[in-house]
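Known limitations

Structure tokens in this collection are predictions and should be treated as such. Users comparing against experimental data should check residue numbering before alignment. To illustrate the layout, the record for alpha-1,2-Mannosidase is reproduced below. The input appears on top and the generated tokens appear beneath it.
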Amino acid sequence: MLTDFAVRRKDRIIFIAVFALIVFLLHRRSQQLNAPIVPPTYRVPLEFKPANFDWSSAKQHFPVETLTPLPKGKPEQLPLVQHQFSKAYKDDDITKKRREAVREAFIRSWKSYKDHAWLHDELLPVTGGFKDPFGGWAANLVDCLDTLWIMDLKEEFYEPLPEPTLLTKAVELGNMLYMAFDTPNRTPGFWLTFEDAKAGRQLAGTHDPSSGPTSLSLEFTRLSQLTGDDKYYDAIDRMRQLLERTQEQSLLPGMWPTMVNFREGTVRGDNSFSLGALADSLYEYLPKMAVLLGGREGSASYEKMYRRAMDVVIQHVLFRPMLPEKEDFLFAGTTFVHEDGIHLVPEMQHLTCFIGGMFALGGKIFGIDEHIDIGERIARGMKGEEDLRETAWNMLRVSLKSTQTPLANSAISNVTVTGETEKENSMESFWMAETLKYFYLIFFFS
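Generated tokens:
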């Protein structure tokens, strides 16, 4: 039989044990609440897993005799691109709250992607689940890595893909894409078919989009800079030489047509000229390549091509629409060259929305004030005007309200309707990779 002291001692031990258990459970729950969101399918950092085929060892049927080396030396000091805000522009409480609202919208979408579509291309934002329109290589994850960094979500950035893994995978992908250039004239076709690449049956296209072979310029150049392997830059520099040689040979000298005969290296088979679909990135990358090369060898060529092309664009492609309030806006149409002259079709493609930034970037780095003004008229946002930040905030509020779902945000079927919108159960990667990133930067002073 226990004494009173023994009973009290036993009660104290039980009380301490229960209290310790409660503290432990509360601490564990707090850790769980504050821990990074980890989807069920992902518990440890991803490791590099080689592809089934090592493209770096694949035979080159049309090998390069002499590689063009990546430009070396110290880069030039380029002009600042960011607008230099005056002291009147302050990072006030309103701006901070708006910036945080964008960040919260991103985190909400990112959490749902991790919970419902991790390692897949896209989230289904209405029903949950995922779809893989790009082959299931985690397009959403890859596309928004820079947004994670910009929004200071660095733990989330490093969580799935540590830096060595990223570079190793980039080299593997680069080697696979490099095989597309294994054609008789070292110009890739529109499609990379593995069987044809391995067998040496690849040919450049005779009627391919002009932006096709030129859309790897930045990626391949940067890959050469990171790895020291000149082969990627050599592949892209051959495309630069082709553009330089044919720029004045088209039906609209100074621009390249929408479709090009890359097999023969000729540009007179198409009479349409545009900054939109099938041609956009060709022009977009001209000033960006000059920046990436940092004024070193090759930069002058890209600047020259940009200046010449934009002179023609200003003369024959840009137009001022007839608006009720007579606003001084500019849009980019499509120009056709016929026997009786040059004809502009004043219809704007949504894929030309980037050209305001292109003109502003070119104007800044090449010192062309006219291009900065044109960029402002196209994009209305290149000169640090405070009213445009208010416009952006209104756009964001409406966008979030119109697209929000229980999980994230969805494309809507009709932007002209009022009231409840019809959701399409689709959230493309650019929602987090571009739209929210740009909104965030609008409210960020640096």
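For this record: The radius of gyration is 27 Å. The chain is about 45% helix and 5% strand. Please report discrepancies through the issue tracker.
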